[in-house]
Amino acid sequence: MTNSEISKLLNNVAAAYAIEDEKKFRFQILAYKKAADSIEHASSELNELFKEGSLEALPGVGPSIKSHLEELFKTGKVKHFEDVLSKVPATVFPLLDVPGFGPKKAYALVRQFKLTNPKTVIADLVKIGESGKIAKLAGFGERSQQDILQAFQEYGLGKTKSNRMVLPYANELAKKMIEYLLMSKKISKAYTLGSLRRKKSTVGDIDIAVASIDPKEAIEHFTKYPHTERVIEKGIRTASILTSSGKQIDLMVESPTGFGALLQHFTGSKEHNVHLREIALSKGFSLSDYGIKKKGVKDAKITQYATEESLYKELGLQWVPPEIREDSGEIKLAKTNKLPKLIELKDIKGDFHLHSSYPIEPSHDMGQDSMEDMIKNALKLGYKYLGFSEHNPSISQHSKSQVYQILEKRMKFIERLKLKYNKSIHIFSLMETDILS
Which residues pair with 169 in a beta bridge? Predict the structure, then answer.
């Protein structure tokens, strides 16, 4: 099984627990969701970790889930999973891939309409919705039925929960949206949220928080984004749009005075936030996306926080960078001001693999910029070294002596650059070589 399939299996187990008794199985649900998320974002295939005997190295995979995974790889199934999943109709699980569907909504619909075929459950519900029967159910209504049919339509176009984006793509979409949002004079800050801000390798929907003294105007500006295909929801504090690229972007608005609490809360991870709430409770406070207030005190005033740093300080913690908010030991270190210093862009001091436009006459992959332009840009970045590593001259298009002549000419050219910039940067003469030829 692939990581994606295993992640889905664990999420299904969590969903089954939620349907059976969400309060009773709260910790099991959290554990399975955490493991599923960790597996989905893992850089190694779980099957390979199993063979190496290092499943426990993956965050979120404790002894219990580890034993279940070992059983899965050895036998192709897990008896405990089968027992849990057997208590829920199989028709529930295909619906969980549809945007807007949680376990309880899916279960209510398949139970009410006695749907038993997982392969046709979505088509069956479309027909039922189009006939107006969903709107008649208690707790649903006409608007809910309309939203469900819209979700099915988008699901049919490939817009699913599991249709995740790789981080660089999601980052680029979010960057464009943030640039647009900050064009409004009513918006002072804009940050990504959730797995995107925590820089996970894949991202679902794009969530963004903005600080604004005029939420109505901020939301109006957001919904007028030029690449909007459809406005999904437009409220007082939140809004959602579907972009022309088929990706959903959600917005949350908070006042500048309370922005830090909202930013922290919706960045996550869930496990990190649960730990923070436990710390707040131990100090006699309750913690939410609005701020901190005295617990058990009637009409207690909420203390707002403009920045995340001030919120963490209130809890007696060093500010935790979003990339490590996974409840994997970072909070313990933050209590004693011993968090590691994360690598930043300014820490990178050079690059050893660059193709310049120098006419080395390779068979492919010429660079676009001259060596000198690259050196000048490297100096702006504060680089200490630079290595030019163009492909060797094409073997098929040159004689041996021609190859030598081109390389000798290039070597002399680089030596002149070394002399010119010897006090500013160390230049290396390298080559990406066709070693067999």
Answer: none
